[in-house]
Amino acid sequence: MSQSNLKVLYITGWCRNGSTIIGNVLNEVKGFFHTGELSFLWKNAYGNGSNTFCGCGEALTRCGVWSKVLEEETPPGQTPASHAREIVKRQTRAVRTRHTWSILRDGTRAEDVREYAAMLSRTYHAIAKVTGSHTLVDSGKLPSEAALLPHVEGITPYFLYLVRDPRAAAHSWTKTKQYVVPMSAFRSTAYWVGFNLASEAIIRRYPDRSFFLRYEDFIADPANVVQALLELVGAGDATNPVKGRTVDLGKNHTVTGNPDRFRNGPTLLRPEDDGWRKELPARARSITQALSWPLMARYGYFQPPRTQARQGVDSKTATNDTREDIRGTGTGR
To answer: Which whole number is the average pLDDT over 264-269?
Structure first.
């Protein structure tokens, strides 16, 4: 494969937004590979990450995919472990969420940012070589990494800005899931606001390569949303793995993500996401709404669910309406 043919669909937004299931659905498309949250690869493989296992069930350092990628990406004269420690330090210095705007403004002017972009190029191409894929789905959800992708040599980037009702996200964060530690509604929503403001900046800068999607619209009409995403990356003729509301998920090689990534087989994409309405305490709901109400209003979360998505109308139309609203604001500059 030539370097110019490698496409990367990067999912950005705050955690617990459905990126794992969307990525794993796309993983079933021929030539696609879902990396999971790739930015955690080095920390989880050789550092003190909370989850050292690949989605296939093997340790990352023993997985048939990631062990080869880690070896392939390591520069001469270094070991994968020592190189991983350097990457984790560089992530802290260069690609935190707060760095999104400086990367959009300055590109790779800073040395740490430039080195990180070079590392991403090596890693993405190593993944493509090992897996034989032409399109990678990276559900890293770091807006700063998304901002960096246009400066990564040899790839064509696309952006999926995925948002979920902050009350549903806060509710999800109250639950312990294996290696995932609970978080307060205040902290979850503060992150939700910050990550979404930064993600808005990405799709405003690169509107023709971006797709805004509410998780609620995905579960309302999953087949049409997946088709729209395939068309975004120029794979509209590929076979859509979603049949009605069911997708047959095979083994994946995700680097962290929702613990549900370890499940496979026929999977029902449930049409509702309203457990928070009964289970989220009133105080937590009030905190969430108070912190996030401007963005909630812009994303339509104070309105009834969109009926057109539930009736099977192309979800891309509905999501692009909100994307146009975002592009018309000054938020996040």
So the answer is: 92
Measure the CA angle with vertex 8, ends 70 and 244; round to 5°: 115
What would you report as the CA-atom Rg of the chain, rounded to the nearest whole angstrom?
19
Contact between residue 50 and residue 179 where contact means Cβ atoms under 8 Å apart: yes
Can you give the pLDDT at residue 3?
A: 47
The torsion angles phi and psi of 121, rounded to 5 degrees, stand at: -60, -50
> What pLDDT, in 10s, does the model give residues 117-135?
999 999 999 999 999 999 9
Distances (CA, A) of 92 to 109, 167, 182: 17, 29, 22
Distance CA 76, CA 57 (A): 29
CA distances from 6 to 62, 210, 323 (A): 26, 17, 26
Which residues, 6+ apart, have CB-to-CB distance to 102 below 8 Å? 110
The residues near 268 (Cβ < 8 Å, ≥ 6 apart) are: 245, 246
N residues, the chain: 333
pLDDT (tens digit, 9 = 90+) per residue, 271-289? 888 889 999 999 999 999 9
Does the pLDDT value for residue 319 go beyond 70?
A: no
Q: How far is residue 231's CA from residue 247's CA, in Å, rounded to a whole number?
A: 19
β-bridge mates for residue 180, sequence order: 177
Determine the angle formed by the axes of helices 111-131 and 66-73, rounding to 10 degrees: 140
**pLDDT surpassing 90 at residue 160:** yes
- Residue 134, classified by CB atoms within 10 Å of its CB into exposed (0-12), middle (13-18) or buried (19+), is middle
HEC string of 271-296 equals CCCCHHHHHCCHHHHHHHHHHHHHHH
Token code pair at residue 258: 């929702």
